[in-house]
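Exercise 7. Predict the structure of FCH and mu domain containing endocytic adaptor 1 from Homo sapiens.
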Amino acid sequence: MSYFGEHFWGEKNHGFEVLYHSVKQGPISTKELADFIRERATIEETYSKAMAKLSKLASNGTPMGTFAPLWEVFRVSSDKLALCHLELTRKLQDLIKDVLRYGEEQLKTHKKCKEEVVSTLDAVQVLSGVSQLLPKSRENYLNRCMDQERLRRESTSQKEMDKAETKTKKAAESLRRSVEKYNSARADFEQKMLDSALRFQAMEETHLRHMKALLGSY
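Solution. The predicted structure, encoded as tokens:
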């Protein structure tokens, strides 16, 4: 079995957004299921009314002749079908209430989840920021090193060499801090991303089990 915590890391750390938007589809699918069942209930109700109308038509059949007893058979069978489909309509309407009730529970669960995973979203944004800063710091350091080497080859004055060395040291220190920030942000992101992935997986599994039960009732 594959687990969310083993996947969805993705390029540029977009996995969290993919998972979050996937989980958000749960209430939408629940509403769509309710709409589908409601349409089915309408069809069953219409059919029930049509069979009741057919039963009335059969009861108006002529009572005379050898065919007359069959009109009673048509009336009874039509009545039974009308009642069966009316009962099915009622059961479907009860099921719609169950689906809508579950949908309300889902919205509460998702609201709570959104509050719980906001720190992961923050971690994603922090990591994105330091990830952009790191290459710039590295490039700045390499440029300072190249400038210092160029001045050395050109036999520049000691004063200029000292200035270049100072700039190189500052660039090196800036790069070191950038690397530390990146490593810290990366570690924080990985831990929070793993926690959120497992939370999302639990929500999806619960959702699918509940939807399966509703479909079983349907």
